[in-house]
Specification:
The protein has 286 residues and is α/β, with parallel strands linked by helices. It has one domain: Alpha/Beta hydrolase fold, catalytic domain (Rossmann fold). Helix content is 33%, strand content 20%. The protein has 11 helices and 8 strands. It has an 8-stranded mixed β-sheet, sandwiched between helices. α5 links the parallel β5 and β6. α4 crosses α5. It is globular and about 60 Å long. The termini are far apart. The N terminus is likely disordered.
Length: 286
């Protein structure tokens, strides 16, 4: 049974109180794009090579990215999006799926005349980023997927019970409780999370974009699954003897699924180093 305390923790974990996130200081370029039956909200911050940010389930641009956008947009054109039925993006008469959301993002980039970009996704957004690399590889330069897997078999024990416990009542007292579309969003996301999936390992192996996988050591994705995905991407070899692979893996200590994004300075250091194509120096290089 999921207790009341764990229900409260679950609300925090999935960013249900997204409307409480403070506004970012910079005023971005914003808009709604007609995308596959949606009016898809986006923000553009900064200038430079494009970096697309994909938020987690029940989240929005401010609740997921507000702490990272100011630093990332100093050197990048950050394109942050809100996905189907989330935040300021409308819903459509179709399920919420990773594949469908990846196609929505690809259509948005077409609308913005962005041919190729780097992608940074968290949780649900990380899975969408992986789908972008599989379904639209020509659009993906580099890929960062945080706290996301390629198979429902990789979820830690208790994940299904946690998702099944989500109800509209858990949003009582938050601005989201006033959203008439909330029950529908919950049902669509519960269907997404409780429907078994297993993307072919050959599709993971076939990802050619440099990829950085990030997980917490107490994540909803098991460590075995994280390492298995890293190995499918060609990681795990002896770098001192064979050289570094183009792909990276980070396991953050003392980190739950949501604590992955509670370590802003650490995340920024790792992510910016990866995006710049840099790596830590070896003892021989120092």
């Amino acid at each position: 049974m999921i207790t009341l305390d764990r229900n409260i923790g679950l609300v925090a974990a999935f960013g249900f109180a997204l409307s409480f996130a403070p506004a970012m200081a910079e005023e971005p370029t914003t808009g709604h794009a007609p995308v596959n039956g949606l009016q898809m909200y986006y923000e553009i911050h900064g200038e430079g090579e494009p970096l697309v940010l994909l938020h987690g389930a029940y989240m929005s641009i401010p609740s997921n990215w507000q702490a990272l956008i100011p630093a990332l947009s100093e050197t990048r054109q950050v394109i942050a999006v809100e996905l189907q039925a989330h935040g300021r993006t409308s819903d459509a008469d179709r399920p919420i799926t990773y594949e469908g959301m990846a196609d929505d993002v690809a259509a948005l980039l077409d609308h913005l005349s962005v041919e190729k970009a780097d992608f940074f996704g968290y949780s649900m957004g990380g899975s969408i980023a992986l789908q972008m690399a599989m379904r639209h590889p020509e659009m993906v330069d580099q890929l960062i997927a945080a706290a996301a897997g390629y198979s429902s078999a990789g979820f830690a024990p208790g994940f299904e019970a946690m998702i099944a416990a989500i109800t509209p009542d858990m949003f009582a007292g938050t601005p989201m409780a006033e959203d008439a579309g909330l029950p529908n969003l919950i049902e669509k996301l519960k269907t997404l999370d409780l429907t078994p999936f297993a993307w072919p390992e050959a599709d993971i192996v076939g990802i050619t974009a440099p990829t950085f996988l990030i997980f917490g050591d107490s994540d909803i994705v098991t460590l075995d699954h994280a390492v298995a995905m890293f190995k499918l991407l060609g990681g795990g070899r002896n770098g001192d003897m064979e050289g570094l692979a183009q792909n990276r893996l980070a396991i953050l200590p003392a980190s739950t699924h949501t604590a992955v994004f509670g370590q802003t300075e650490l995340l920024l250091a790792m992510v910016q180093q990866f995006l710049a194509g840099e790596a830590p120096k070896t003892m021989m290089e120092q």
